[in-house]
Every structure is written in C-alpha cells, then in structure tokens.
Design a protein that fits this description.
The protein contains eleven helices and ten strands. The chain is an alpha+beta fold.
C-alpha cells in the first residue's frame, strides 16, 4: 500500500509546514490532476493525540461530499519512514487571510455573500449524524476559489460529536475561539462564534485577536456601522453560549428577520475609480449627452460580460489543451486569473458609469469636492 501511494504521486512543491508535518502540492499520476497531500511524521509528534486527530481527519473527509469541502482522494503510509499521508483535492484560490495581510476591509455586501456561503458549509457539517464540529474556523482556513466560491479546509481539529460537559482537547485559534472552548466544551455554537469572529476580522482588515473589545465581547461598533449585519454578528459573537445564536438555522432566521438593505442604493464614487480619468470625466457630462454615454457604456458592459463568461474561459481552455505540462499550465492559470481580474474591474467601472448616466436618474449624485465642476 505504501509503495503504491509513494509511486502514484509526484511532489511538486510545498503548500504549508507545521511542527508535526507538511502539506505538499503533488501530481496524481493516475489522473493527471494536482492534489494536496498532508504528511504527518511520527518522529515529530510528542503526543499521540496528534495521530488520533490525523486519523479522525482522514475518516471524516472520506465520508463527506460537499462542493465547499475538499474531496478525499487517498490515504497511505510509509512504514519505513513512519510517515502518514492524506491526499485530498487541491483547492486553488486565495485564503481569506491574504485579505488581512493586505489590511483590506471588506464591504458589507461581500461580507454577507461570504457569510451565506460559509453557512451552507456549516449546515452540511452540523446536520451530519452525529454533528461534525470544525473547531478552528478562521480566515486562513477559508479559501475563495477561482470560481468565486468559498471552501473550508483543514479538518485537523474536527470533532464528530458535541461535548458540552468539558473534557475535550482544547483546539482553536485565539481571537476566533469561543470562550467555552478554553475548558473543552464543543457544540455547533463554537463554530458560529468563530465564523462571526472571522467576518469581524475581515470587516476590520485585521486579525480578530487585535480587535477592540468591551470585556469579553468584540466591539463591533469599531468594525461596522450600525446595520442588520452588525446586529446579527453581535448575536453570533455573544460570549455566553446561552445568549448566542447557536446554530446555522438560528443565524439564517436572524438574517431573514433583519430589515432588507435598499435595493436601489447609490453607486459609490469609488466604483468609478476603476476607470481612467478621461472616462471618469464623462460621469460629469449633463443631458442630453449623458444619454449617449449611457448607451455606449451599457453596450460596453455587455461586451465585457461576454468576454468574462464565454470568450476568456474558451480561449484559455483551448490554450491549456495545446500547452505542455507543469510550468506552462501554471503560467497559463496565472495569466487567466490576471485577465479575469482586469476584465472584471473594467466591467464594474463601466457599470458604475452606465448607472450614473442613466436617463431615468432623477438628479445627479453629489461628487467629491475635487471632482465638481467650477
């Protein structure tokens, strides 16, 4: 078994490294697909609990099937080296922790979209029999894929049954851990707390352990303006689990009961910053010329949508089939992502221009002082 596993996978590079092992990028020779391989080295562990958690992670992933969870592929061991291997689907994308590293504060619509996707994953986990508790939700364990969908990775701390009477091993990350985890209590409510802390961190652009607090409670007034989302996050982050939204269903019910955001919110000025200055100047043109600008901008948006949705994926699909292996394919993936970002930025800017020039807009939106005509 070990020989077969070692022969099947060709290591390409390092994805991550910890005190007890590594996570490697590798090529599955049987399928031609790249995979992620988690390696546990017995020589590096000083507590057999680490081996138990590794075994639990393998067993849990093997029975899960959800688009937001990496797919289990294989497991094997090398008796000669004392190494154990877990092979799973490789998730290509951006860990949300990169947003924190860049100190990027996410706007509320983006936070709400991430919240909805994360709740889908947690609903699947928590509704298993028995419930599966992740126990270590944080920005680095959420990856935003190239398809703009969220994935939850790293199931090394997972627990497959709630423990509300203490006695469980303490697992989690300070700043994101619910207070009851400090003495071993585990229930779906600890994942709800950690998800709330993750969103608070993304809203602030800094790690949760650095956020201002009032006692044990994260001070959300420093993170978000008063809003339905802020109110729901506050209930997700209640330090007392008896006062907290304790389940995915609770959070969804609270979101549904919150007042809906206005559907016709004005386009922020910063959307126009995606365009070069000559095109931004068109936003200040008055009627009747603004109607012509609106028509041209709307047509351009349509062209960019076709490019983004159909032509670009087709072009790179053909290019990948014609390219070689290894570096050529990785270079093409990078070029595709760069082209997608450029096209998306241009489309959003043109959408902002089209909305500003719309002929049914009742009155001009105010411009920053530096942009007003004198």
């Amino acid at each position: 078994m070990s020989a077969t596993g070692l022969q099947r996978y060709q290591v390409i590079g390092l994805l991550g490294e910890g005190s007890q092992g590594q996570t490697l990028r590798a090529l599955d020779r049987a399928t031609g697909q790249e995979v992620a391989i988690k390696v546990l080295r017995l020589a590096k562990i000083d507590d057999w609990k680490a081996f138990d958690l590794f075994e639990r992670e393998c067993q849990v992933l093997e029975r899960l099937d959800h688009p937001g969870i990496p797919r289990f592929i294989d497991r094997f061991a090398s008796e000669g080296t004392g190494e154990f291997f877990l092979v799973r689907e490789l998730i290509e994308g951006e860990p949300l922790s990169q947003r924190l590293a860049a100190h990027r504060r996410l706007p509320e619509p983006e936070l709400r979209r991430l919240l909805d996707q994360a709740l889908e994953i947690l609903a699947y986990l928590h509704h298993q029999t028995p419930p599966i508790i992740h126990r270590d939700l944080k920005p680095s364990n959420f990856v935003l894929g190239r398809d703009d969908r969220l994935r939850l990775i790293d199931y090394g701390g997972v627990r497959v049954a709630p423990a509300t009477d203490g006695g469980s091993t303490m697992i989690g990350t300070y700043g994101y851990m619910a207070p009851e985890q400090l003495h071993g209590e585990v229930s779906p409510a600890v994942d709800i707390y950690a998800l709330g802390a993750t969103l608070a961190a993304l809203a602030a652009g800094t790690d949760a352990d650095k956020l201002a607090r009032q006692g044990l409670r994260i001070d959300l007034t420093r993170v978000l303006p008063a809003s339905p989302l802020q109110s729901v996050l506050a209930r997700m982050l209640a330090p007392d689990p008896n006062e907290r939204l304790r389940s995915v269903d609770d959070v969804r019910a609270a979101l549904a009961a919150a007042p809906a955001a206005p559907s016709s919110a004005p386009v922020p000025e910063s959307s126009l910053d995606l365009l070069p200055e000559p095109l931004r100047a068109l936003a200040r043109v008055g009627r009747p010329f603004s109607i012509l600008i609106w028509i041209i901008a709307a047509l351009a948006v349509g062209v960019f949508i076709v490019l983004e949705v159909a032509l670009l994926p087709l072009f790179f699909a053909v290019a990948q089939r014609l390219s070689g292996e290894g570096d050529d394919k990785r270079r093409l993936r990078g070029q595709r992502e760069e082209a997608q970002r450029a096209i998306k930025s241009a489309r959003r800017g043109l959408q902002a221009l089209a909305e500003r020039a719309h002929p049914l807009r009742e009155e001009p939106r105010s411009l920053p002082p530096g942009d007003r005509d004198h």
